[in-house]
Amino acid sequence: MKTFLDRIMAEADYQPFRLLGMLRAVQAEYRHIPTEAIEILADRLNIPRTQIIAVAEFYSFLHLTPQGRYDILISDSITDRMLNKENLINYLAHVLRVKVGEVRSDQLVSLNNTSCTGMCDQGPAGLINGRPITRLDRPKIDQIATLIEQQIPLADWPEELFQVEEKIHKRGLLLNQPWQNGDALKATFVRGLPETLTEVDVSNLRGRGGAGFKTAIKWRTCSQQAATPRYVICNADEGEPGTFKDRMLLDLYADQVFEGMTLCAAIIGSDQGLVYLRAEYLFLYDKLQSVLQQRRELGLLGSNILGREGFNFDIEIRMGAGAYICGEASAQIESLEGKPGIPRTKPPNSVMCGYQRKPTVVDNVETYLATAHIAIQGGQWFAGVGTAQSTGSKLLSISGDCARPGIYEYPFGTRIRDILLDCGADEVMGVQVGGPSGTFISNRELDRVLAFEDLSSAGSFMVFNNTRNIFDIAQNFTDFFAHESCGFCAPCRVGTSLLKQQLHKIIDGHGSAADLEELSELCLVVKTNSHCGLGESAANPILTTLASYPDQYLKQLKHKEFSPGFNLDATLNVARRMAERDDPGAHLTQVEN
Ligand code: SF4
């Protein structure tokens, strides 16, 4: 183990901020983070062992106890559930003789649920030792089980088991543009850096990661900071359930994304870029590395880019380790610094004090791609599409009850009704626009439009038909937030668990009118008192489904009077056993009015 750790520490230059990468390597080698490894890393990197344990405990893809040699994770997104995921995972557990959430006694296999793996267009999906498996069905599960029982190394499994399809059904402003590597940079150098920033400003491009902050303001503010070095980060951690358009962009349009990062670097004065790639997209890592290498060979990365004296910039890819919260910019920066991904307190904003406490631009994959084309075509070209407040186009990842799930690009301002027609959705009950943190709209609201000023989406667009139960949707999303809360602040840590409990109580038919009222109040508390966007949006699934279908919630109430959500007397069993008492005096009595 010592030799292995010496090697990975040397590769990481013994830099503590590369801890997450080192722990990922240890996890891959030993199937967990052994205590001995923690001691050695703490000693050689000169960091407290508690800090290493905190990181290992924070990320869901790292473990302090050994996982199976074949570690299987099945995506628990609502769209996977709609495709029979629950039956399939139970079948998988049956054929592999392992319980969900456990490691088989011979340590050959472990099986668990995981949050959305970014494959909702080809679910039910999952990961085996980090490699994606899609369109799971019983024959495929039988095949996988046989390969595992025969202990065939993953490298020798049939490649078609790991195939990921990129289905683009509709191309628009960005995806239709012709592309030559280097054109955006050449256009930027000819026009001038301040002038290109003006074009980004004129385009009125707003960040495509969800928050919708104006890109030009972010870049200008960063460029005006006195501190150096400055950093360019590409947020490729699209963890919002139902989103997979960045997967496609990185798979098929990586050059345009990297060129957008490079022109950002030229404008803000940066020589280092980082791509934070979500752990679920490990399968893209080698391909992206070869694109970067090709760009270095073409003189589009490295020193004196395109012959421009003194313009040096390169891009490094760093992997996440399974934490939805790391999609939040400041949490992502913490993660890049080798820490648990806990959102920072703001101000200061990351453009002033970001990675390594230096000025940093963090933008989404799609945003960088858009800037590359704006550099070539100009700001007016982009601003001429969409609405006044939401210029340009938006890529959508469409999944759920529709004939043609996949990637679609629309001008902002497009009606939801028209999108549904394109993707072949019939008998629609509702649409979740923007994933669990977004908005649920009913079939009475289909004339609403895709736009920051109406229905904003980072890319997720889930369709539900009339056979679906509104509570399955609200419950899945609420459970997701309770699971993904980073635990830093009480309103979200406690609040998301209480929301989950209270919603389950109502769904299970134990709710009263008072419970529904309490649920609404709790939503407000979590929304208004949480530290970051996750907590602020964690109540959205309940609030928006309640707004669309209040009658269904009311129908679900079985009691007018209060009914306890749990049995307090039964909960005291442990205490009674410890006190060796079971007499009537040791029991609570319910007082009936
Ligand atoms: Fe963490 Fe939730 Fe608080 Fe955000 S709101 S800091 S995710 S506990």
Keywords:
alpha/beta, 25 helices, five-stranded mixed β-sheet, 593 residues, six-stranded mixed β-sheet, 15 strands, globular, binds iron/sulfur cluster
Task: Describe, in plain words, how this protein is organized in 3D.
The protein has 593 residues and is of the alpha/beta class. The chain is built from 25 helices and 15 strands. The strands form 3 sheets. A 6-stranded mixed sheet has the order 6-12-11-15-13-14. A 5-stranded mixed sheet has the order 2-3-1-4-5, with helices on one face. Strand 2 and strand 3 (109-114) form a beta hairpin. Helix 8 crosses helix 15 (365-377), helix 9 (193-203) packs antiparallel against helix 10 (215-223) and helix 12 packs across helix 15. The longest helix has 18 residues, at 490-507. The termini are far apart. Iron/sulfur cluster (SF4) binds next to helix 19 and helix 21.
